[in-house]
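Figure S4 source data
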Amino acid sequence: MRVACKLGKSEVGLLNSWFSDTFIIYSRSDSLQDFAHVESAARIFFQLLLIKNIPVRGCISHGKLYSQAKKNIFVGPALIEAHLYGEALDWVGFCLAPSIEEKLKDDLPLEQRAHYRKVSDRHILRKAEVEYLYAFAFNNGTVNGKNPYRKALENMKANAPPEAGLKYVNSMAFLDRFA
C-alpha cells in the first residue's frame, strides 16, 4: 500500500513494509512535511492495534535508510535506532527516538507537541541508554468519559502470561500520569 498526495510539482508519500512482527512506515525524504505524515500514520496504526487488544511497541527515528521494498531489504542507522529504542522499553507504547528530538528542536520542540510526553522512568526505559524519551501519551480523547486505551491495556494484561504483566503495569502508570 502506498499513500501519496500531490503538493505543487513534487510528490510526497509514505511507503510501508512488514515482515514477521515488524512494520516499517517510511518516507522518501526527511522534510518536516514527510515527518508529519509518517508520525501521523504510525501513531494511528499504533492506536488501532491497541484498540484491537494487540500489544505493540514501536519507535520513530530519523536518519538514513536504504530500502529495496520489492525484495523486503531495509538497512541503515534509522532502522537500527528505531529497533533499539522500540525494544529497549518495558511497556506497550510508542516513542520517538533521540534523532527525532534533534530533527525537530528548531521546528516545534517535543515538549510542545500535543500527543507526546517525556518518559524518564527507568522501569519503562529499562535498557535505553538515554535519560528520557518522548512517548505517545495515550491522550487523544475519551469515550463516555473513559480512556479507551486503559481498557485495552487491562484486557491485554488479563490475557498475558504473568511474566509479561509488568509491561502493562508500566503502560497504565504512564497513561494515568498523562492521559
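Figure S5 source data
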Amino acid sequence: MKNEENIVRCGWCGTDPLYMKYHDEEWGKPVQDDKTLFEFLVLESAQAGLSWITVLRKRENYRKAFAGFDPIKVAKFTIADVERLMQDSGIIRNRQKIEAAINNACLFLDIQKEYGSFSEFIWGYLPNKKPIVNSLKEHKSAPARTELSDRISSDMKKRGFKFFGTTICYAHMQATGMINDHIDDCHAK
C-alpha cells in the first residue's frame, strides 16, 4: 500500500481527491482511442476561461449530456438539443461552447474519414508519433503553448474547429499524453 504522504505529484493537482486521481491515472498517459480523444476535445473546449477542476467535477454530467462522447451522435445534435443543453445545470451552459462541441464532432468525423482515425491525424504531428517528454523541475515551468500547439491549432481552425486555440490545444496534448509535462520527480512521470 502506498504511503500518500511520500508520493510526489505535480503541484497543480493539490490535495483534491478527484484532481489527484485524474493526475495519477489519466493526465499525461498516451491516448490513442478516438472516443477518448473526442471526450477531451469536448472537455478542453468547455474549459476555456475556467479552471480544469470545474470541468472535471462536471465530467460525468458531460458524459450523459453529450451521448457518452460518441461523436456520431453528437454530430447529429439539433437546435432542440442545444436548447436542452442550455437548461442542463450539470454542464457549463455556454451556447457557443455547446455549439462548438457539435460543430467539432462533425469535423472530427471528417478527419476520421480522411485519415482512418482522429488518433492517426493528431498523433501524426509528433516525431515518429511518440510523446514528447519534457524535463520540468516544477509544474509552473510548463509552457501554456508551443510552436507545435500553434501549428496544430492553426490547422484545426482552418478545418473549422471552434474553441481550440493554441492554449487549449496544448492542454489537450498534455491531457492525452502527446506531451508528458509531469515534473521530473512526479511518481506519474
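DSSP finds ten helices and two strands in the chain. The first strand starts at residue 132 and ends at 133.
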